[in-house]
Amino acid sequence: MPLLILFASIFLIPPIPGANLVKDFDLPINTYSSGHRGLDYLSTFGAPVVASADGVITHAGLIANRFTITVTHNNLRTTYEPVKPIVKFGQFVKQGQIIGYLQQIGSHCFPESCLHFGLKEGKTYLNPIISNLRKYPRLLPLYS
User: What is the C-alpha to C-alpha distance for residues 29 and 57, in angstroms, rounded to an integer?
Assistant: First the structure.
């Protein structure tokens, strides 16, 4: 059963199913401090990256010479980099739909390929793993 993360009424699934988490979220103490504003998942060059939840593509292209994608889910945004997009601005995507392919250039794990997966609400960075505890937690049945 895949890991499900709850945000109000949004469930996030891992952006690269089966990839290993190699770096955790580390919120900086202020806007300009060092930290790690997302999660890094180690995978292979060209691995398909999927939308973690239903949403609208609000960015798909280059930022600072690396491919990035942003998907907006009401008041939340998920970000994916470095991912060469196969989606376009304004396109609606479904949870689990392939949105692009993992790249090596711009990877936090260079020379290996890893996905940096972020979550924001407004200008605030959130931890994609534990932010489900922020609002309206809900218990799900556990099936073995």
Answer: 30
Residue 11 burial class via C-beta count within 10 angstroms: exposed 0-12, middle 13-18, buried 19 and up: middle
Residue 45 structure tokens: 């060059």
Taking CA atoms, 8 is separated from 73, 74, 88, 134, in Å, by: 11, 11, 27, 9
Q: How far apart are the first and last CA of the chain?
A: 9
User: pTM to 2 decimals?
Assistant: 0.78
The tens-digit pLDDT sequence of the chain (144 residues) is 344 444 444 678 889 988 888 877 666 666 676 656 778 899 999 999 999 999 999 999 999 889 999 999 988 999 999 999 999 999 999 999 999 999 988 777 777 889 999 998 888 888 777 434 334 444 455 554
Question: Strands, DSSP E only, in 52-109?
Answer: 55-63, 66-73, 76-81, 83-85, 92-93, 98-102
> Where do the structural domains in the chain lie, given as residue ranges?
5-20+38-133
Q: Which CATH architecture has domain 5-20+38-133?
A: Distorted Sandwich (2.70)
